[in-house]
Amino acid sequence: MSDEVRDNPPESRFEIEVDGHRGVLEYHRSGKRLVLIHTEVPHALEGRGIAGQLVRTAVDAAETDGLTVVPRCPYARAWLERHPDDAARVSIDWATTGSARDSGG
């Protein structure tokens, strides 16, 4: 896919445009924490890995800036749990997210 995710700091979101549709991952930066709030991908783009690409870009940004990721978004949390190699690149605050890992599933 030639479309790239870009950070839009004024809107506090990562976003990507594909075929005239926009996928977003809303976040909040608080000190050294990148809180992932909500992932939204239009139905027209579902099944193309767009949401995962958004989360991976957030992890890349957190790694570059030395931030702790706080995955409050259920999709982002599940994606990080399914991609331990990516998750291992950054510090993740699972405790405040209600992670399935902490609740037994």
Descriptive overview:
This protein is α/β, with parallel strands linked by helices and 105 residues long. Helices cover 31% and strands 31% of the residues. A 6-stranded mixed β-sheet has the order 1-2-3-4-5-6. Helix 1 links the parallel strand 4 and strand 5. The model is unreliable at 98-105 (pLDDT under 50).
Order of helices and strands: EEEEHEHHEH
Fraction of residues in H or I helices: 25-40%
Q: Quaternary state, please?
A: single chain
Based on secondary structure, the structural category is alpha/beta
Major beta-sheet overview: 6 strands, mixed
Distance between the termini: 33 Å
Low-confidence stretches: 98-105
Please state roughly what percent of the residues sit in beta strands, choosing from under 5%, 5-15%, 15-25%, 25-35%, 35-45% or over 45%: 25-35%
Describe the strand arrangement of the main beta sheet, using strand numbers. 1-2-3-4-5-6
**Mean model confidence by pLDDT:** 90
Cα Rg: 13 Å
Per DSSP E runs of 2 or more residues, the count of β-strands stands at 6
Total of DSSP H or I helical runs spanning 4+ residues: 4
Q: Any idea what the shape is? A: globular
Write a compact overview of the structure shown.
The chain is an alpha/beta fold.
Essential attributes:
105 residues, alpha/beta, 4 helices, 6 strands, 31% helix, 31% strand
What secondary-structure arrangement, pairings included, does this model have?
Blueprint: E1 6-8, E2 13-18, E3 21-30, E4 33-40, H1 50-65, E5 68-71, H2 74-82, H3 84-87, E6 91-92, H4 100-103
Parallel strand pairs: 4-5, 5-6
Antiparallel strand pairs: 1-2, 2-3, 3-4
